[in-house]
């Protein structure tokens, strides 16, 4: 099967999400984000524009897109997950590191979400997307029932019924079956990897705290030491360890933002991929059901002919015509959805490859910078150690 | 034997692989050189081969070896502590008991969990735990060696009879471990000592030098203790992080082998990188352990030994003062005056002897400490730099390759 040629992106469209601001007080408070678009696309009213959106607006956009496009086999990017705990801290006004981290993580995740949506050529054409980016006031009366957890539940239900169907399905195209297996295997590995990266983040944070404790302890030891040169060297060591504390903290943030978040995004995205396979299954099932129904109607007609009941015969013939049309329609639908799913999966794989490469290289570069800093600190310390006499 | 950790019985390790961990100023004195040339790890115990080279006439040969176990080292140490003649010296601290319990437990848990992981994962983890076991083993050997070297370097202790027996007598010394009753006696001795210690520490010393040393050692010892435990905690976190990177590398490898697409090749390269960097991270943690944690632990024990010396001097001072008071009383009553005079003289001599040698010992302690810290801090910095540069190079070349591929 020939791959469709990728249309070169000859237009510009840049989206950024910035300035998270708390609106309101107490439990009704929410975070509003600035969504800024810069584009050369003629379908938008201007070249640069900004709107304010809150988290439930993003969820609302996803619901609209999913309702319209999933049944056609499109892979609709999922939004970041709801987090009751994270948001409660923000609402209650807890100004600490963890709530600042949460807001930043959410802001970045929302940005990536929107970027993925507009990067999809079909979704970009959807008026809801345009409206979301452009319109000053989008009613978020749609308070999303579909939270992140709800989304996952839906997927799991779908895949349950999916596994029941595959046994019966006559897979003429083995490609889909193999692809689904690949997706499921990958999902398993990514989840495993995500847990491990989370563990690494935890241990690095712990290392940071413990290094800080050690630094203070060495400083105390240095002030006790009655040999002057050794005392100075120890206080220099304390300073190096202090800087290391900072370095480990930054590294943990990089582990989290560059690596862990990438994995979380793709675990959610794979859920959408499985949803599109599921959709294909549903259209296949509908076609099969229609074929079965047509068969039944034909049997009914044959029975009526045999029983010589001419008055009911016309009804039977009408039914047959109706179901013949449905069978044709549903077969066409199945072929169309299959083609879409296939195209979507190939597109997804390309995007995933690009994403992973870009993000992981960025992560490795942050590790690189850490090492360069480390070298600087120890090079400054070495002469101090040698000066001990 | 089921569930036995490696190295199994009969694993021998040779001299060159042992780091001379802590003590620097070991006079390379041809008259008496002691080292641990071999060691064997068996189920319950470690057997050290103590090797001696000496030109001293006391020994029957110029070079000889014996096999000793941990209890025999403790016996030797305790015999020094109990010897009144050595009251004025810092007794080199006894090496800690070889403790493989934690490592053995981990290996056992690994054996139990073998069914739940892939063959590669199991082999990897087993290798790591074996490496950990080996590291602990090397450390315990180094600590026992340092003890012997300190004794051999000490002008007085090196002549001790028990030491010579320890070095030369090629049969088992039949030194059993302390039984329950003896351990209880020890416990009470220590309790009394610390109560006394408070008492003695309270008396201000006439001699400025000792007064300063007392204040200094009390504070220093506590701070070294704190630094030692904090360094252990820090190094443990470092090891945990390195372990995580190891697991991440394995999972990336699995992802990379699922297909032969570009992204899979990418995963394989990154997995390879992480494998290498985590080995370096593990080495960094191990080196910090050797150069920093072990250094602090050692000076924790030595500063305690120095405090013990001050305590003994303090006790002798109290005895001397009591003897003075007794003498005054005897003279006042004119009863048993000669006895009181003799007793007072003995106490005086004892106190002055201890004070004289203690002063030198404390000065030497300072010199040794400064030298050891210098050596270890320099080596620490050099190793940190070496590893960071190694890491940097790996990262740079990998990023270069990955960027070039896209």
UniProtKB/TrEMBL annotation, chain A:
A GO-annotated cellular component: lamellipodium
Q: Which GO molecular function terms does the record list?
A: phosphatidylinositol binding
**Chief localization:** other
Keyword Signal in the entry? The reply is no
Q: Which InterPro entries match?
A: AH/BAR_dom_sf (IPR027267), PX_dom (IPR001683), PX_dom_sf (IPR036871), Vps5_C (IPR015404)
SUPFAM superfamilies per the UniProt record, alphabetical: BAR/IMD domain-like (SSF103657), PX domain (SSF64268)
Question: Does the record's keyword annotation contain Transferase?
Answer: no
Cleaved signal peptide residues: none
Q: Which UniProt keywords apply?
A: Acetylation, Cell projection, Endosome, Golgi apparatus, Membrane, Phosphoprotein, Protein transport, Transport
* Residues covered by the PX domain: 11-140
Q: Which GO terms describe its biological process?
A: early endosome to Golgi transport; protein transport
Q: What kind of membrane protein is this, topologically?
A: Peripheral membrane protein
Task: Name its cellular compartments.
Answer: Cell projection, Lamellipodium; Early endosome membrane; Golgi apparatus, trans-Golgi network membrane
| SMART domains, alphabetized | PX (SM00312)
Q: Which family does it belong to?
A: Belongs to the sorting nexin family.
Q: Indicate what this protein is called per its UniProt record.
A: Sorting nexin-1
Encoding gene, per UniProt annotation? snx1a
Automatic annotation (TrEMBL), chain B:
Protein name per UniProt: Sorting nexin
Query: Family per UniProt?
Result: Belongs to the sorting nexin family.
GO terms under cellular component: cytosol; endosome
Q: Where is the PX domain?
A: 26-173
This protein's superkingdom? Eukaryota
Listed GO MF terms:
phosphatidylinositol binding
Q: Which CDD domains match?
A: BAR_SNX6 (cd07662)
GO biological process terms, alphabetically, are: intracellular protein transport; retrograde transport, endosome to Golgi
Q: What does this protein do?
A: Involved in several stages of intracellular trafficking.
What is the organism of origin for this protein?
A: Oncorhynchus mykiss (Rainbow trout)
Keywords on this record? Protein transport, Transport
């Amino acid at each position: 099967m020939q791959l469709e040629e990728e249309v070169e992106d000859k237009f510009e469209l840049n989206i950024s999400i910035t300035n998270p601001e708390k609106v309101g007080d107490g439990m009704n408070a929410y975070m509003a984000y600035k969504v800024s678009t810069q584009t050369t696309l003629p379908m938008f009213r201007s070249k640069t524009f900004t709107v304010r959106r809150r988290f439930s607006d993003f969820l609302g956009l996803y619901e609209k897109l999913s309702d319209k496009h999933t049944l056609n086999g499109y892979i609709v990017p999922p939004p970041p997950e709801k987090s009751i705990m994270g948001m409660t801290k923000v609402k209650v006004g807890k100004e600490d590191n963890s709530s600042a981290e949460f807001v930043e993580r959410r802001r970045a995740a929302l940005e990536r979400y929107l970027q993925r949506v507009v990067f999809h050529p079909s979704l970009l054409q959807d008026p809801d997307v345009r409206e979301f980016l452009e319109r000053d006031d989008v009613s978020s009366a749609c308070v999303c029932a579909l939270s992140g957890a709800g989304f996952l539940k839906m997927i799991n239900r779908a895949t349950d019924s999916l596994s029941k169907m595959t046994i019966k399905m006559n897979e003429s195209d083995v490609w889909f079956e193999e692809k689904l297996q690949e997706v499921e295997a990958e999902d398993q590995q990514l989840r495993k990897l995500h847990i491990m990266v989370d563990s690494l983040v935890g241990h690095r944070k712990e290392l940071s705290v413990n290094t800080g404790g050690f630094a203070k302890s060495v400083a105390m030891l240095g002030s006790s030491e009655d040999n002057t040169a050794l005392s100075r060297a120890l206080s220099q060591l304390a300073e190096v360890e202090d800087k290391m504390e900072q370095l480990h903290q930054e590294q943990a943030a990089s582990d989290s933002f560059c690596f862990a978040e990438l994995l979380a995004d793709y675990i959610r995205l794979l859920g959408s991929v499985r949803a599109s396979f599921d959709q294909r299954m549903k259209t296949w099932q509908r076609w099969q059901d229609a074929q079965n129904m047509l068969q039944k109607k034909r049997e009914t007609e044959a029975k009526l002919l045999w029983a010589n009941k001419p008055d009911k015969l016309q009804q039977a013939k009408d039914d047959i015509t109706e179901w013949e049309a449905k069978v044709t329609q549903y077969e066409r639908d199945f072929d169309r959805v299959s083609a879409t799913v296939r195209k979507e999966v190939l597109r997804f794989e390309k995007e995933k490859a690009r994403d992973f490469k870009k993000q992981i290289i960025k992560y490795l570069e942050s590790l690189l910078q850490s090492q360069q800093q480390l070298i600087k600190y120890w090079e400054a310390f070495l002469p101090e150690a040698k000066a001990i006499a | 034997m089921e569930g036995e950790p490696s190295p199994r019985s009969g694993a021998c390790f040779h001299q060159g692989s042992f780091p001379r961990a802590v003590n620097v100023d070991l006079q390379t004195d041809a008259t008496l050189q002691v080292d641990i040339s071999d060691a064997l790890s068996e189920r319950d115990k470690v057997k050290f081969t103590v090797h001696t080279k000496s030109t001293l006439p006391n020994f029957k040969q110029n070079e000889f070896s014996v096999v000793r176990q941990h209890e025999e080292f403790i016996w030797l140490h305790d015999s020094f502590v109990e010897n009144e003649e050595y009251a004025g010296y810092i007794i080199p601290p006894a090496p800690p008991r070889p403790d493989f319990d934690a490592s053995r437990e981990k290996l056992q848990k690994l054996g139990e969990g073998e069914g739940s992981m892939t063959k590669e994962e199991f082999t990897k983890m087993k290798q790591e735990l074996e490496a950990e076991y080996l590291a602990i083993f090397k450390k315990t050997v180094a600590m026992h060696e340092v003890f012997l070297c300190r004794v051999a370097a000490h002008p007085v202790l090196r002549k001790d009879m028990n030491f010579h027996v320890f070095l030369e007598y090629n049969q088992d010394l039949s030194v059993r471990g302390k039984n329950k009753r003896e351990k209880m006696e020890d416990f009470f001795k220590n309790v009394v000592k610390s109560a006394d210690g408070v008492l003695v520490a309270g008396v201000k010393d006439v001699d400025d030098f000792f007064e300063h040393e007392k204040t200094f050692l009390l504070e220093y010892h506590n701070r070294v203790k704190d630094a030692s435990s904090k360094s252990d905690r820090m190094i443990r976190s470092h090891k945990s992080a390195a372990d995580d990177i190891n697991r991440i590398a394995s999972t990336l490898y699995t992802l990379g082998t699922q297909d032969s697409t570009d992204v899979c090749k990418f995963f394989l390269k990154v997995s390879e990188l992480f494998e290498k960097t985590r080995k370096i991270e593990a080495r960094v943690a191990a080196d910090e352990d050797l150069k920093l944690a072990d250094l602090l632990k050692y000076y924790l024990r030595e500063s305690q030994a120095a405090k013990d010396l001050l305590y003994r001097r303090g006790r002798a001072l109290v005895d001397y003062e009591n003897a003075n008071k007794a003498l005054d009383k005897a003279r006042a009553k004119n009863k048993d005056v000669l006895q009181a005079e003799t007793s007072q003289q003995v106490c005086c001599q004892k106190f002055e002897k201890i004070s004289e040698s203690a002063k030198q010992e404390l000065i030497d302690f300072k010199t040794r400490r400064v030298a050891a810290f210098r050596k270890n801090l320099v080596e620490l910095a050099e190793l940190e730099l070496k590893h960071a540069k190694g890491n940097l190079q790996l990262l740079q070349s990998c990023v270069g390759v990955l960027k070039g591929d896209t």
